[in-house]
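Subject: complex prediction, re-run

Hi both,

The earlier run crashed halfway through, so I resubmitted it with identical inputs.
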Amino acid sequence: MFEMTDESKYALNVHDLTVAYDFKPVLWDIHLQVPEGVLMAIVGPNGAGKSTLIKAILGIQKKIAGTVEIFGKPYEKMRKEVAYVPQKGTVDWDFPTTAFDVVKMGTYGELGWFRRPSKKQKIAALEALEKVGMLPFKNRQISQLSGGQQQRIFLARALVQNASIYIMDEPFQGVDATTEIAIINILKELRSSGKTLVVVHHDLQTIPEYFDWVTFLNVKKIATGPIKEIFNDENLAKTYGINYKVTINK
Amino acid sequence: MDIFEYISLIFTDYTIRNISLGTGALGAICGVLGSFAVLRKESLLGDAISHAALPGIVLAFMITQAKDNYVLLIGAIISGLIGTLLISGIVTNTRLKKDAALGIVLSVFFGFGMLLLTFIQKNPDATQAGLDKYLFGQAATLMENDVKLLSIVLGLSLLVLLMFWKELKVALFDSDYAKSIGIKTRFLDSLISFFIVLAIVLGLQTVGVVLMSAMLLAPAAAARQWTNRLYVMLIIAAILGVISGVVGTAVSTTYNNLSTGPVIVVIAILIVIISFLFSPKRGLLMRQILFIRSRKKIEQTKVLLLMYNIAKTHDDVGHPHSNKILNNFQGIGKNVLKSLENQGWIKVNEGMWLMTEKGFNYAEELNKGITL
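This time it finished cleanly. Structure:
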């Protein structure tokens, strides 16, 4: 499907990306290549620029310099291959809408201007709701859902897009153990079917268990690669600035 | 003229029909666009824009010396838009937050407008063309052309909503996500802001600078109480806007020609109060009722379990006991006993109570924690 040049073998290719707020760099010269089919965590302390990196990749945040390529092509041309799960806290959950409606929003990108979701899109949305175990709640107003359920709705909205790359900003934030397991199982399933996943993640303890690829970020990119090779105390210390001990379940 | 005479005049009298159609259309526009302002959490933007429009009106009059409404409205649009741009300029280029920017623009523009207004009032050459009607509004001056203009704007805004419905919805709910799927949120934002400015400027003649923002917010805030669906909210807001406009104008014309703006706003606020009190899901009254009901239920359960624990120490479950032994020998309120008796769980007779079989079984289940 894609030309297999050196550049296009990467699902996501970030070149020399720099982003600044008020003259202060939040991301400095990031060079990042993510191979197809990995489940990658982005880790780093608060203010390391994790969310900013994601937003810059998605074209939400203005870049000062650098480019982003999806399978070797500019993001703008490859939108349909990318699904985004924003942080749950960025929206107003008292918005007058239902769970089903939010998931249907996942079909809007494919539909383009002026077209309305038809039966096909509605079925896809129902299937995604089923997959995250939220079908019984489809007509609930979204404020009447628990935090974990809201997170599942966001995940379902991304699933509907049926993209090749999933970019998620802290999907495990504030969810209970059941939801966390449900979500990670879905992520692993997506990886098994050849999808690429980029996930901002905070809990260092679970990284080796959940992910197979990791990027350490603190304004600059510290390291990126397979968990087995680079998830070690040295990189953690470089990223977090302290001697960070974690047990790696090998 | 009483209110019933007025209602019949809506259908027969040309002027009154125009006024009612005009304020009705204005109410609908404000309801629909106001819903966007409320959901974007930009409720005070309308207040700033309407106040910012005043110097534009007066300047347009001073420059052209014309009483023509449309010239003044163009002045209002220009200075309203300048105000809007200034607000976003202040927010992006300084450390001031949006509320401060709104406050600054509102007061500076309104102050300047009032200054100009008093200046031309003092000037003996110029007849100030009743410009102060823009402060509190005067629906009686609505002409057929105004009604046409309002209807066109109403039609246009509905058309835009229908065309961009799903884009507007996702941009309103989650603008980052909307951007990620390629929706031009800045274009949509500007489009909606432009229509909000237009709605405000058109409302100035009827409702006035000072109270225009209430016209934008009240129907939307009230509508939110009655539904959890976006399109239903817009429809209800439009209907409530029409009601406020038409009823407000009717009341203001029939009672000594009260200023239209304040009367319309009072009607709109009454609707808000009713909605906040009586809406079935979010209303304060319903929530209070649910609270009292659950408190009663808990009280009943507590008493029933107390009785169960007394009754089960006897071989005969239905053995009568004195009311006095309940609750540390103080007795228990008659209401609780009565409601338990109504459920068939106990029988009460002359200061004595006894548990029925049904009540005992129910309490046993409760005690196991199944029913609770």
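The first helix of chain B runs from residue 3 to 12.

- K.
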